[in-house]
Design goal:
The chain is an alpha+beta fold. The chain is built from 18 helices and 15 strands. Belongs to the GHMP kinase family. Mevalonate kinase subfamily. InterPro entries: Erg8, GHMP_kinase_C_dom, GHMP_kinase_C_sf, Phosphomevalonate_kinase, Ribosomal_Su5_D2-typ_SF, Ribsml_uS5_D2-typ_fold_subgr.
């Protein structure tokens, strides 16, 4: 009997007694500007939250057995809540236990095999991303300073067993080989026709598309635990339309929504840093929490206090170090006070983000180390001059894109004329003064041309970095692909996302049909690029998913109705 069959049978057995399922999702990201520079304040990065999302469903499958379990306050009458964490795309099931030891102390442990989580007993090995996120969320529910967590703790104590199902949209993982095996073309239509949440062929190297899957997973998992226990209420996604913003929960204003997201953001950043064993820029977790934004990183010392406190308790490191005893004072003394600057934005109607999967992964940590060594080791100051010029060029792009989006909202008819003209003629052929667009659209045309020129300046500086360091930020092969993309009608600008490399290219385009135009151009040019299904996501970061098709699929999967592709299906196709 396969693991998939075992899970399906178990889920069916329990489904008659299941409580309501909470489904939370968080978006992936594409960093448009700010690669490398976003690592240090005060530089900014413009990141797009995308419609490829990670989903976590939480279902209380068994209630606590006695009333005393939900009111335990001393070591003599502690309680335990068990968690079954299923990752069907990876064919893995992990079990954890959260136990009240009384007197404000809680034990987090693996509850499968021999309990140490090292995988030597046949159980799955440690997954620091899952374990840390779950431990930190539970730690906050039981040990947080906010008054709302007391009721959440009592609710958690009444849950005997909670089943968590973790799945990510197909766009997080390269499907190029799968399409090739099926004899399908490398198109977004081919990807869209695949079953949702495909199981992964783990006999082969896993190739990701650079959308920040670990950050989206951690953010969604933290948020799902907090939402399911009632520690907070997130915005609600009530439509499958990625251009329809999420709605605030009943009775919540913008301040309450931001406070809830701030709480998720703090815990997800802390868990992500602990799982990775370092404090990074955090833009990927911020994107998963708040959606598209201009981002300035938080000061690393803002997380150091919590990390040190957890480390002293034996719960703060990577690997399996999140197993341990959590004290009430740890989270009560460290709150969601990160000083990151988040300025939300979203693309106007008829402007789209296109991402192409080039099928070659890049080793981002090694690239970052080499570039920072170049910047810091330059005695003559030339590297720092390029660095500062790149920061100014990024800021110019961010500002002009904001101006164009504002103009699109203020002058919709002029913007529609701009979109129509862009779809018919490449921007490279436009008159420099925008006069060929004509009428009220001419000022918007000037903004579009300025934006394009400013991003070309960013690309030129990234190529300087490539030449100076030997790090392939925009290598020649990508330059040829991007130049060909920029020559197509409707393309505002194109480039390498994030840290660059060979794995992907992005384009910001005008016109709903431009995606198809680009796909055709990539195919004709022999570039072997697979355009992903995703777009920029206006739903605004982590949210409780109420009615979308994807949420229904996750809930059905948790109930064992085989919405997910069977495990191992990819390797048989």
């Amino acid at each position: 009997m396969t693991m998939a069959t075992t899970w399906s049978m178990a889920s069916r057995h329990k489904s008659n007694n299941m409580a309501a399922t909470t489904v939370v999702s968080a978006p992936g990201k594409v960093l448009l500007t700010g690669g490398y520079l976003v690592l240090e304040r005060p530089h900014t990065g413009m990141t797009a939250g995308v419609s490829a999302r990670f989903y976590v469903s939480a279902t209380t499958t068994t209630a606590a057995t006695t009333a005393a379990d939900s009111t335990a306050t001393t070591a003599a009458d502690g309680w335990t809540t068990n968690f079954v964490v299923r990752s069907p795309q990876f064919g893995e099931v992990r079990r954890y236990a959260w136990q009240s030891l009384g007197l404000g102390k809680y034990q987090f442990s693996r509850a499968d095999g021999d309990g140490d989580g090292d995988g030597d007993d046949g159980s799955p090995g440690p997954n620091p991303y899952v374990g840390t996120a779950l431990a930190y969320a539970l730690g906050y529910v039981c040990c947080g300073a906010d008054g709302v967590t007391e009721a959440a703790r009592e609710r958690l104590a009444g849950m005997g067993e909670v089943e968590l199902v973790l799945v990510g949209d197909n766009d997080f993982y390269s499907q190029r080989e799968l399409l090739h095996d099926r004899g399908l073309p490398l198109t977004a239509d081919s990807l869209a026709a695949l079953p949702p949440f495909l199981a992964l062929d783990l006999s082969k190297d896993l190739v990701k598309t650079g959308l920040g899957s670990s950050a989206a997973l951690i953010t969604a998992l933290v948020a799902a635990v907090l939402e399911h226990t009632g520690a907070l209420a997130l915005p609600r996604i009530v439509s499958a339309d990625v251009h329809a913003p999420a709605e605030p929960p009943a009775g919540a204003d913008a301040t309450a929504v931001r406070a809830a997201k701030d709480r998720v953001h703090y815990l997800a950043q802390a868990a992500h840093c602990a799982a990775q064993g370092k404090i990074g820029s955090g833009f990927d977790v911020s994107s998963a929490t708040y959606g598209s934004q201009k981002y300035t990183r938080f000061s690393p010392e803002r997380l150091a206090g919590l990390s040190e406190a957890l480390g002293e308790a034996g719960c703060g490191g990577a690997g399996a170090a999140w197993l341990g005893v959590y004290d009430a004072g740890i989270f009560a003394n460290h709150g969601p006070a990160l000083d990151a600057v988040v300025e939300p934005w979203t693309l106007p109607q008829h402007m789209h983000l296109v991402l192409g999967d080039c099928g070659v992964g890049s080793k981002t940590p090694g690239m970052v180390r080499r570039i920072l060594a170049w910047r810091d080791g330059d005695d003559g100051g030339a590297a720092r001059q390029v660095w500062d010029a790149l920061g100014a060029a990024n800021a110019a792009v961010e500002g002009t894109l904001g101006e164009l989006a504002a103009a699109a909202t203020a002058s919709p008819q002029a913007y529609d004329a701009l979109v129509a003209h862009a779809a018919a003629q490449p921007l490279a052929a436009w008159a420099a003064d925008g006069s060929d667009v004509g009428g009220e659209a001419a000022p918007l045309a000037l903004l579009a041309l300025r934006l394009r020129s400013e991003f070309q300046a960013v690309r030129a500086l990234l190529r300087e970095v490539t030449e100076a360091t030997g790090v392939p930020v925009e290598p020649p092969a990508q330059t040829a692909l991007i130049d060909a993309t920029m020559a197509q009608p409707g393309v505002l600008f194109a480039g390498v996302p994030g840290a660059g490399g060979f794995d992907a290219v992005f384009a910001l385009v005008l016109g709903d049909a431009t995606r198809r135009t680009m796909e055709d151009a990539w195919a004709r040019g022999g570039f072997n690029v697979c355009p992903l299904v995703l777009d920029e996501d206006a739903r605004g970061g982590v949210a409780r998913d109420m009615q979308s098709t994807a949420a229904a699929a996750v809930a059905a999967a948790a109930a064992g109705t085989n919405i997910l592709a069977p495990l191992g299906a990819v390797s048989r196709l």
